[in-house]
Amino acid sequence: MKRDELLGWLREADPARLEELFRRADAVRRERVGDGVHLRGLVEVSNHCRRGCAYCGVRAANRDLARYRMDADEVLVAARRARDLGCGTAVLQAGEDPGLSAAWVAGVMRRIKAETGLAVTLSLGEREDRELRLWREAGADRYLLRFETSNRRLYDRIHPPIPGRRSDRLSLLRRLRAMGYETGSGVMVGIPGQTFEDLADDLEWFRHLDLDMIGIGPFVPHPATPLGCPALAASGPEQVPATATAACVVVALARLVCPLANIPATTALDAIAGRRGWELGLVRGANVVMPNLTPLSYRALYEIYPGKEALRDTEAGGGPGARERVLALGRTVAAGPGASGARAARRAAAGPDERAARGDACLHCH
Ligand code: SAH
User: Would you say 150 and 201 are in contact if contact means Cβ atoms under 8 Å apart?
Assistant: First the structure.
């Protein structure tokens, strides 16, 4: 899809035309990744964070928030529940927390893999290359690191760097890919100051990076953050609104530009769409949901945006759970780890020499 067309859809306001886009994305989703929905069990292992992201409720400067760090046994309990609920993957997410030592993470991951057989996705922020390599060697399958916006000026405005270190998530994503991770990224939709042109660029980056996973959620203002101030509320003709529809348009376009990617219907979408966001996302291009398996006592504290702690599900003891919600849509729960089809296609397209050079194929057999 050409840039003009992307921009046309991003600016489209007619609900009937948008239905056409959503139908197209749903058809491509069905044809390219099928009706199976992958469940990824989300475990929010720590809300400590050294960063000051201007939108995020767990930013270091938020002194009113009680901080927690799960211990290894608690993480294992959550991972077992993920397996028992039919998840093929455990996602370990946290603030950017140096207190989660590289060795601790590697150890927990090894235990999860040995005891549950689940694939493991890490989402622990911008860590050192040597740590990322260590985790990959310890068996981590995937890494999620949203670039949030490809507009460098906007990015810099909302991501104060660690002194002396420039944050460059796009280059980190390339290094993660080179380390052998399935690589996931994504953006928030409706960040104050974000324009439709910015989102068209973001979509071109998704295509360019040939992402394995793409997470897209609406920006949700958090009152304890600089971007949570109501005076900053989005305005102007080029400002992207932080609505469920705008987020779904980006999900649908992401499916069209990266047809084989694993694309979740995100928790943020669910939160702002009155607990119907998974359903909206799943019929507009998404093929993954991430039930939250963080113990309830910690869950309220992983408040990256407000309203999240109120999300209840069967997993937590009330309301329909991920499986029920998927089945109610006439979809199935996919078995297995749900590896990236984009990666399989990349590998098939690479010549045997390249495959052998990467060490993932025997020259004689393939
Ligand atoms: N520390 C990790 C995990 C961050 S939380 C990292 O830096 O990657 C995961 C995602 O939640 C973020 O990438 C961001 O896109 C999203 N998020 C954070 N605050 C948000 C907010 N106020 N509204 C919507 N999404 C938010």
Answer: yes
Does residue 361 carry a pLDDT above 90? no
For residue 187, the ligand 1 atom closest to its alpha carbon is: 15
Best probe residue, ligand 1, of 45, 304, 309 (max atoms within 8 Å of C-beta): 304
268 CA → ligand 1 middle, Å: 9
Chain centroid offset of residue 144 CA: 6
Cα distance between residue 182 and residue 211, in whole Å:
8
Neighbours of 95 (CB within 10 A): 26
Specify whether the CB–CB gap between 267 and 306 falls below 8 A: no
> What residue's CA is closest to ligand 1, atom 2?
125
Let me know: does 334 contact 40? Beta carbons within 8 Å. no
Statement: residue 310 has pLDDT above 90: no
pTM score: 0.94
**CA 128 to ligand 1 centroid distance, Å:** 19
Asked whether 42 lines ligand 1 (CB < 6 A), one says no
CATH architecture designation of domain 3-360 = Alpha-Beta Barrel (3.20)
Q: 239, 195 in Cβ contact below 8 A?
A: yes
Write the CB contacts of 21 (distance below 8 Å, at least 6 apart in sequence).
Answer: 9, 12, 249, 252, 253
Whole-number Å distance between alpha carbons of 104 and 277:
34
Q: 357 C-alpha vs ligand 1 centroid, how far in Å?
A: 36
Q: Is the CB of 266 under 6 A from ligand 1?
A: no
Q: Does the Cβ of 96 fall within 6 Å of ligand 1?
A: yes
With both helix axes pointing from N to C terminus, report the angle between 196-209 and 169-178 in degrees, rounded to the nearest 10: 20
- pLDDT band for position 311 (cuts 50, 70, 90): low
Distance between Cα 338 and ligand 1 center (Å)? 23
Nearest-Å Rg of the Cα atoms of the chain is 19
| Strand spans (E) along the chain | 36-46, 89-94, 119-123, 142-144, 182-189, 213-218, 288-289, 332-333
